[in-house]
Amino acid sequence: MANLVEATSQQQFEDFLAKAGKCLSVVHFQAAWAPQCEQMNGVMAELAKEHAHTTFVKLEAEAVPEVSEKYEITSVPTFIFFKGGEKVDRLDGANAPELTKKVTRLAVTGIPGGSDDNSATDLNQRLKKLINAAPCMLFMKGSPQEPRCGFSRQIVALLKTHNIQFSSFDILSDEEVRQGLKTYSNWPTYPQLYANGELVGGLDIVKELAESGELENTCPKAVTLEHRLKTIINRSPVMLFMKGNKEAARCGFSRQTLELMNATGVDYDTFDILQDEEVRQGLKTYSNWPTYPQLYVKGELIGGLDILKELKESGDLVSVLKGES
Q1: Which of 36, 112, 182, 258 is the most buried if burial means most Cβ atoms within 10 Å?
Q2: What is the dihedral of CA 175, 179, 185, 188, to 10 degrees?
Q3: Which of 2, 300, 272 shows the shortest CA–CA distance to 144?
Q4: Angle at CA 101, nearest 5°, toward 19 and 78?
């Protein structure tokens, strides 16, 4: 397949990117010893058939260390997306639905007949949806549990000190959002705080609001735990509460659940209960279900791993995930 290639050196890697030009290149940093990499190569082969103008590159991460170090590859599989030789997105872990979604979204521009205007419109709609994902939304480097810069650490501490209930988005996980939001909001730096869909500002603004006593009035009041749980459960039509996330399960039951979910091809979101003790304990009572993982479809509890296994054996899993039964 002409658009599915393997790079065995830094020069080859650079040549493939140069040859692709403005078209999308997807580089799979892999390892021969990792079975999940072989599985994702199968997914890439299928995507290569559908996206003739996209170049899919397999690269043995340990064999080309200079490239792996440059793009901070710490685990396999990892996918880096390039256009015009520049990195535009990243995906860590074996997540077939997410890889398919990113390739489909990013492959539109730069191909004959592709539309940059349509792509910009799609990105703006995505940014608007993210900004309005919670009444108080923080775009930061890292997570509230593990901030990845001093400014993000300070703003998280301020919000917690003032009992501001907020959700967050790690801009280091999505280069398209990271760059796009700067233009969308005409605000060049991070972190960025939004309240009710409107930009509040960065760390300096939040500090000023805190000092003047206006921060609590600017940001929506903290909601009850029950309301918060309902909001998270309905964040996506298919919502999985687990230990870890799509890229890295933190227990065997969660890992098995991810394998079952990924095999269906149905899109879903996850919530890491290890990062939020309030949700971890509260959801057990709310749903009267004592263990994790827990899967919800359209706001309704389906069950845990055993239930999913039964649904798979009966052939009903996909229809249940799609809300058809």
Answers
A1: 258
A2: 120
A3: 272
A4: 65
Per-residue pLDDT of the chain (325 residues; tens, 9 = 90+): 679 999 999 999 999 999 988 889 999 999 999 999 999 999 999 999 888 889 999 999 999 999 999 999 989 999 999 988 889 999 999 999 889 988 988 886 544 344 444 556 678 888 998 898 788 999 999 888 889 999 999 999 999 888 888 889 989 888 888 989 998 999 999 999 999 899 999 999 999 999 998 888 888 665 567 888 999 999 999 999 999 998 888 899 999 999 999 999 999 999 999 888 888 988 998 899 989 999 999 999 999 999 999 999 999 999 999 887 5
Q: SS3 of 218, please?
A: helix
Distances (CA, A) of 20 to 14, 15, 118, 175, 191: 10, 9, 21, 20, 34
At 136 the three-state DSSP class reads: strand
Instruction: Tell me how long the chain is.
Output: 325
Q: Which two tokens stand for residue 210?
A: 């805190």
Residues in a beta bridge with 193: 138, 201
Compute the half-sphere exposure of residue 10: CA atoms within 13 Å on the CB side of its CA.
Answer: 8
Q: Are 266 and 322 spatial neighbours (Cβ–Cβ below 8 Å)?
A: yes
Single-letter amino acid, residue 315: G
What are the CA-CA distances from residue 26 to residues 13, 90, 97, 163, 165 (Å)? 11, 9, 15, 42, 37
In terms of C-beta density within 10 A (0-12 exposed, 13-18 middle, 19 or more buried), how is residue 187 classed? middle
